[in-house]
Amino acid sequence: MTLVLGGGRSGKSRHAERLIEACPAPWTYIATAQAWDDEMRERIALHRERRSGDWITQDVPIALPQAVREAPGPVLVDCLTLWLTNVMLAEADLPAAASALTDACAAARGPLVLVGNEVGLGIVPDNALARRFRDEAGRLHQRLAAQSDRVVFMVAGLPMTVKPSSENPGNPS
């Protein structure tokens, strides 16, 4: 399992796609975004257009643990923070959802790459909901990073290995 974190437009998704594409196809892309407006529909369309026909896309805004558990072969989840937003907006039990996700990741049937936005590098948000989101995202990323074989932090399209793979500690990807 690999966790790919970074800021907006840091190259997280493209890097994660390359990691999964190093495995034999077909690949499963579990997309958590919801198209609430035209701009988001365009973003989703651009992501889909750049992927080849070897990708099987599943739109999973909330039931991510189940989708990860059931997906065959190599899986990319993009993204954890959009999933967290969806879970929070649904007013679901966040600790239970996070536990279900970590359990599902441990039971994944093949290589798994998770993408998340690192939102904790800026100023403390000025409202309670934004602070809660930042804190929950940080907690979720910490849990998944501890469980991951490898953690990569993306900066300006460049992968920085934060936690090297135990199978190949010198692997820079």
Output the keywords.
173 residues; alpha/beta; 7-stranded mixed sheet; 6 helices; 42% helix; globular; disordered C terminus
Q: Your description of this structure?
A:
By secondary structure, the chain is α/β, with parallel strands linked by helices. Helix content is 42%, strand content 21%. The protein has a seven-stranded mixed sheet, with helices on both faces. A hairpin with a 2-residue loop joins strand 6 (150-155) and strand 7. Helix 3 (64-70) runs parallel beside helix 5 and helix 4 crosses helix 6. The radius of gyration is 15 Å and the shape is globular.
Mean pLDDT: 93
Percentage of residues in DSSP E strands: 15-25%
Low-confidence stretches: 168-173
Largest sheet: 7 strands, mixed
Oligomer: single chain
Number of separate helices: 6
Spatial shape: globular
Order of helices and strands: EHEHEHEHHEHEE
> Which structural class is indicated by helix and strand composition?
alpha/beta
Distance between the termini: 13 Å
E-strand count: 7
Global Rg? 15 Å
State the helical fraction.
40-55%
Q: What's the gist of this structure?
A:
It is built from six helices and seven strands, in the order βαβαβαβααβαββ. The chain is of the alpha/beta class and about 170 residues long. The longest helix has 20 residues, at about 130-145.
